[in-house]
Amino acid sequence: MKAVGFWTKGLPSSDERSLEDLQLADPAHPQGRDLLVRVHAVSVNPRDVKSRMSMDPSNGAPVVLGYDASGVVEAVGPEASLFKPGDEVYYAGVLNRQGANAELQRVDERIVGRKPATLDHATAAALPLTSLTAWEMLFDRLSLPPDGGAGESLLVIGGAGGVPTMAIQIARQLTHVTVVATASRSESEAWVRSMGAHHVINHFHPLPTQLEAIEALAPVTRIFSTHTTPKNWAEMAQVIAPQGRLGLIDDPEPLDLRLMKFKSVSMHWEAMFTRPMHATADMQRQHDILNTVADLIDNKTLVAPRVASYGTINAANLRRAHAALEDGHTVGKITLAGF
């Protein structure tokens, strides 16, 4: 099968060896609850860049990246019961198995959902990682009550990225919480408002002052931070309500947790790969979340992110996608389709 991967970690995306076109053996027939999926499209995330720079090839095999995919089930393991050959699916995969930048991929059915029927494969591939991260943070980590939250506010730090775009939509459509998001550019502010934010403030300006200026704003009981700096960490400690919940997904420098002590604020990390990597008892929740998101996309409650097509799945196009993410000026999710 065709695949894209690397034999040497940490090379710049400008180096042709950083991601190479490969010819690999097809995966073995799936066992247990695995599916064998023929990949039709992938999207590229910052996680791909981090893995390219940090993961080592092992056991004489290259690293194949890819953490967002959409495709068709080719075969199912003997214990699989959620899907059958021919089903269209989408999923985010896991860090400790071969990624989706290959014609065929084995993946546990418990982290796979049915592809939204109203989307093509490329657009569907832009959804799993961001949707799972946002959903798990809001409902599993921050305990935002579905169809609840009236009289409370959710503050989303860094509102225009892929994960917060989904978080804002989900919170606005499925709860009654007041959503406040941060954005620094006019186009980012317009995008965040279009996703459903009730209020938008600038994360480069003092957060407490801007929140105080919002008339009759409900207490900020939950904060979802996707970009955490020492400055906004200290400001978060000021604005969060007593006994509030604060969630992080980025990798900030060491933070002073003592700032949160006398408000009894609880801290929550969200790593979308936790359930599949540790085979938790509730691992199938990711299957359920993805199916729910597919329903919400199909009935127009949620909208898919903007998609920037980078062509077919090959090394040159993936290197270009990695370079764009490293540059930090991408618009929408980068997708590639076909081999």
TrEMBL record:
Domain of life: Bacteria
SUPFAM superfamilies membership: GroES-like, NAD(P)-binding Rossmann-fold domains
Keywords from the named record: Metal-binding, NADP, Oxidoreductase, Zinc
Keyword Oxidoreductase: yes
Record domain Enoyl reductase (ER): where: 17-336
Pfam families named in the record: ADH_N, ADH_zinc_N
Keyword Transferase: no
Family: Belongs to the zinc-containing alcohol dehydrogenase family. Quinone oxidoreductase subfamily.
Matching NCBIfam families: adh_fam_1 (TIGR02817)
Record-given protein name: Zinc-type alcohol dehydrogenase-like protein
Lineage: Bacteria, Pseudomonadati, Pseudomonadota, Betaproteobacteria, Burkholderiales
